[in-house]
């Protein structure tokens, strides 16, 4: 049976101390990591395949290049697509693969120590920060969108906020009790607003195009 919305925010047991054996997670959160990890991995894999085709044939047009705005080819040929000297999706394949492994481990009953959860927090924070920079570059510098990139953005945002909720609930990230309760009750709201803001920026950036 699919996990409910409440299960996604729920984790097992009370906040852990450094000396304990570790903290696991509820099935909903574990599935969230697996699903978002697979979504990001799929996006990275498709982009890399199209990048290889583009290197082989400069006239190749990716299937997701639909119009002047939704143009994956323009994104792939930009300098921003290789920030670290290699295609960005190669980094994504490693990172999303790690997230999938963590989620599968949690489904199998794994429990991780505080330093591990903070490491996941740092990794997802880097991911969402990098995606935010890429979003700005896409909207205001490259002037094009990649649908597969958008999928990776959404996956990263969701995994970041639910990882944050998990770490706040277990005391790995300090927060007042009132904030903890609010985050658990409205756990869907922050990622929804975050994604909604990006959607509004995309809508307004090319408003004339969408309405023409």
Short description:
Helix content is 67%, strand content 0%. It is mainly α and 212 residues long. The chain crosses the membrane at residues 29-48, 90-108, 115-136, 142-165, 186-207.
Write the layout of secondary structure elements.
Layout: H1 5-9, H2 27-56, H3 72-76, H4 88-107, H5 114-142, H6 147-169, H7 177-185, H8 189-205, H9 207-211
Helix pairs in contact: 2-4, 2-6, 5-6, 6-8
Features:
single chain; 212 residues; mainly alpha; de novo design (two linked rop proteins); 9 helices; 0% strand; disordered N terminus; VKOR_sf; VKOR; disulfide bond; Vitamin K epoxide reductase family protein; transmembrane helix
SS element count, helices: 9
In the residues, how many domains can be counted?
A: 1
**What is the CATH first-level class name?**
Mainly Alpha
The name of the CATH architecture is: Up-down Bundle
Strand content: under 5%
Distance between the termini: 44 Å
Structural class, by secondary structure, is mainly alpha
What's the pLDDT, averaged over the residues? Answer: 89
- Structural Rg: 19 Å
Quantity of strands, as a count: 0
Specify the CATH homologous superfamily: VKOR domain
The fold-level CATH name is: de novo design (two linked rop proteins)
Proportion in helices = 55-70%
Order of helices and strands: HHHHHHHHH
Structural shape: globular
The major pleated sheet works out as:
none
Question: Residue ranges: pLDDT <50 for 5 or more in a row?
Answer: 1-6, 13-19
């Amino acid at each position: 049976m699919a996990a409910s919305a409440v299960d996604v925010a729920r984790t097992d047991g009370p906040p852990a101390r450094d000396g304990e054996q570790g903290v696991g997670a509820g099935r909903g959160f574990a599935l969230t990591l697996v699903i978002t990890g697979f979504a990001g991995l799929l996006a990275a894999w498709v982009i890399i395949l199209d990048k290889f085709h583009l290197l082989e044939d400069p006239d190749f047009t990716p299937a997701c290049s639909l119009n002047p705005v939704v143009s994956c080819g323009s994104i792939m040929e930009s300098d921003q697509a290789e920030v670290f000297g290699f295609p960005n999706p190669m980094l994504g394949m490693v990172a999303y693969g790690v997230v999938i492994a963590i989620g599968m481990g949690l489904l199998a009953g794994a429990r991780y120590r505080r330093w591990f959860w903070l490491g996941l927090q740092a990794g997802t924070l880097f991911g969402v920060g990098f995606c935010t920079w890429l979003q700005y570059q896409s909207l205001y510098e490259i002037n094009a969108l990649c649908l597969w990139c958008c999928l990776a953005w959404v996956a990263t945002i969701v995994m970041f906020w639910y990882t944050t909720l998990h770490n706040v609930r277990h005391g790995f990230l300090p927060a007042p009790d009132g904030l903890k309760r609010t985050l658990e009750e409205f756990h869907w709201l922050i990622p929804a607003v975050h994604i909604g803001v990006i959607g509004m920026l995309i809508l307004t950036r090319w408003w004339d195009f969408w309405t023409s």
